[in-house]
Amino acid sequence: MDNSTFIQLLERCQANDRLSQTQLYRMYYNYGMTVASRYAPNRDDAAEILNDAFVRTMQNLDKFNRELPFKAWFNKILVRCAINYYRRYTVKRLDSQPISESDDQPFDAEILSGLSAQDILKLVQQLPQSYRLAFNMYAIEGYSHPEIAEMIGISEGTSKSNLFKARKRLVEMIEGERADEESEEIRPLSIKRI
Amino acid sequence: MTERDFDNIFKDKIGDELPFDFRPSDWLAAEQELDKLMPLAAPATPVAPPSIAPIPRLLAWHKWAVAAAVLLLGSQVYLMTQLGKVKNEVVALHQEKTELLSTAEAKKIDENAPKNMPQSVVIQHDTVVKTVFVEVPQKSNTSQQFAQGKTSSKQAGPKRFDTIEGSDNRLDERNEVIGMSPKTQGSTPAKMNLATKNTGLNAEKIALNSVENASRIGGQKEDILINKNEVNKSDLINGNKENTDNSFVINKENTPNSTVIKNDNSGNLLDNKLINSTELINKENTNKLAEIKKENTVLNTLPNADLAIVKSMSRAKNWLNDETFDFILTAKRVIIKPTSEPNGWEITASTLLLATDEHRRPRYRGAGGDHDDQRMSTGANLRIGYNLNKRLRLSVEADIWNERHGQDTAGRPQILPQDFKLTTVEQTFTGLQLRMGADYKTRQVFGLQPFVGIGLAYQKRSNDDFQFRYKKDNKTLPPIAVPNENKFDKPIFLSVRAGIEGKIYRRLNWSVDVNAQRGVTDRKALMTHLGLKYAF
User: Fold this and answer.
1) Most buried residue among B4, B211, B326, B389 by CB atoms closer than 10 A?
2) Which of B13, B22, B33 to mutate to test the interface with A (most CBs of A within 10 A)?
3) Closest residue of A to B38, CA-based?
């Protein structure tokens, strides 16, 4: 779809044409679900975030600058809706003590590279809400800690701490899976040994 | 492996768009949310057909209202007509009665009787008249005139049927007089007269007819006793021994036996025929006297009855003539009221269908002639209004008001600066309004009566308003029912008014006032009342 056609689609959506809105929803369903899934623990919650973001997009189409990419604008709305979701459903468990991220953890990159996107997404979804939010915003979306702190309403230290803990938790989960895999491999062996 | 490398791996893996199976349920959820927040434009609603449901009901109301108004108005006109007839009859009866009944005693009893009540009739209440007094003219030619019926009692001179004390009885032609001299009556009250319309004895004719056969005996008048029970032949014969020319006249019209008794001053009976004749005469007159007795029996019962009758008639006359009790028909109010609607002016005409205005007892009579009294009025009122938004208003009101009036030393009416209580119950077709208030009226200024007042009203109206109007932008549409714009969810409101009233002439009043109403919350109204009131 070229840009002019897409603009016309947006205008019809702005005119509250339900058919055009359905078309636009389908066009950005995968992208929206991808972003939302990173912030939600499961698909249903991701769909809730996506729907909330889509309705807000429709309500604010008149504010959208047609010269800018729609996806980036939609992404911002998705992230904000994810933050609202986080505020709405999550009991804040914020660590007030910032943690230094100077510690470099020895990690085997090959193990991580061998994981599929779905496996990595599952790992991220298993993170606690606060950790997941900080990790996604910092590592995936590219926000800085001051921006994250302002958007979420936490301090920069808390954001850094959450990011550190998220990383640490991810490494633990990856190593745990690896250990499980090894144990499963060894266990038969051990059984064999027995 | 640095943190950035770690993050980049995640970004590369899940940063791009991942494949997700589209679930229609996700879109349905989004669409429901859109329907809530961004509802689609409602489809154009078809214009209501002319025969929508409320219209027949409204028309039925109109028919009912018009019929009721016509009926009430007709009833009032009929009632007023009847009241006018009754009034005239009572006044005529009173006048007629006062012509018939008049004694000094009655005068004393009836202090309220009009001063100009005719005093031509004197009633002897306590005695049955039994005798007839007839004065025989002294001159034969005068007697001849009587015999020819050419003279009336008036022509015969005041002495003929004069009453004692020379009262100015004006015995008209129809009155028949029976009189008796005190000389022959003895214990009979010396002054006695009876006048009634239907006595049955025509004394004048008695005299005239008797004169035909009369001859002059002594040239002086003689009393004749014609009571059967008390007839004394000797008296008849020796009517007046001192007089040499005694004569008497005995009635019977065309009675052949009528004769004249002559007395030669010897006391002897000159003519035996006279005795027989006298007996016949007495017999004839007995019947007449019986009628007289009967009449007088009725009349004798009058004194006590007179008292009540005269009093009641006097009271009735006072009611009817002295404005003690008035019936009022008035185009009571013409209301010009701005409302909160776009062209919110409303003109309302009111007609007070029937009201009674009772002038009650004076409560105070101060020195110098000032006095005030109470006046209580009740009435029913049909109000028909029409405002510029093509809205018809119909209501029925019942008014009760109580006010005090007074007169100044010059006798000019004034409304004293006292309490004036007003209670109005207005029953509209869709609700009920109850108003109570008080006005304060100062003394008159240049013949005008200023007043100010406050009021408190409670109004309850159903939501299903009966009012209707035409749609402005399309006049071809039939009247449509509109929801009541004044729901009166806060039904209590205050009103303040001020105005002035005056008289056009004696019974026609006018008034103008401005009435501002303010609801407890948001209801406001400013009304101007123009009033005309005519009291019958």
Assistant:
1) B211
2) B13
3) A16
Please, what is the end-to-end C-alpha distance for chain B in angstroms? 116
Chain A: closest CA distance from residue B34 (Å): 6
Q: What is the DSSP letter of B462?
A: -
CA dist list (Å): B498 to B225, B454, B519: 80, 9, 18
Chain A interface test: which of B1, B10, B36, B38 (most A C-beta within 10 Å): B10
B32 touches chain A (CB under 8 A): no
DSSP labels for B92-136? HHHHHHHHH---HHHHHH-TTS-TT---------SS-------PP
Which sign does the torsion angle of CA A82, A85, A86, A87 carry?
positive
B28 part of contact set with chain A, CB < 8 Å: no
Structure token pair of residue A149: 């702190």
pLDDT at res. B338: 54
Mean pLDDT value of segment B229-246: 42
DSSP state of A138: I
pLDDT digits (tens, 9 = 90+) for B410-451: 555 554 433 344 444 444 444 566 667 777 776 777 878 788
Rounded CA-CA distance B397/B385 in Å is 13
Contact A52 B10 (CB under 8 A): no
Lowest mean pLDDT among B190-204, B298-312, B323-337, B385-399: B190-204
Listed residue (B399, B388, B397) closest to B337, CA to CA: B388
Joined together, the tokens standing for residue B215 give 């001859």
Are A51 and A25 contacting, i.e. CB atoms less than 8 angstroms apart? no
Element (H, E) at B176: strand B176-178
Sign, CA dihedral A100-A101-A106-A108, equals positive
Option in A21, A29, A107 nearest B22 (CB): A29
Q: What's the confidence (pLDDT) of residue B24?
A: 83
DSSP A11-76: HHHHTT-HHHHHHHHHHTHHHHHHHHHHHSSSHHHHHHHHHHHHHHHHHTGGGS-TTS-HHHHHHH
Q: How far apart are CA B34 and CA A55, in angstroms?
A: 6
CA A17 – CA A25 distance, rounded (Å): 12
- Tens digits of per-residue pLDDT, B124-152? 333 333 333 334 444 444 444 444 444 33
The partner residue sitting opposite B33, judged by closest CB among A33, A51, A108, is A51
Asked if ipTM goes beyond 0.90, one says: no
Contacts of B151 (CB under 8 A, 6+ apart): B142, B145
Please tell me the predicted confidence (pLDDT) of residue B108: 55
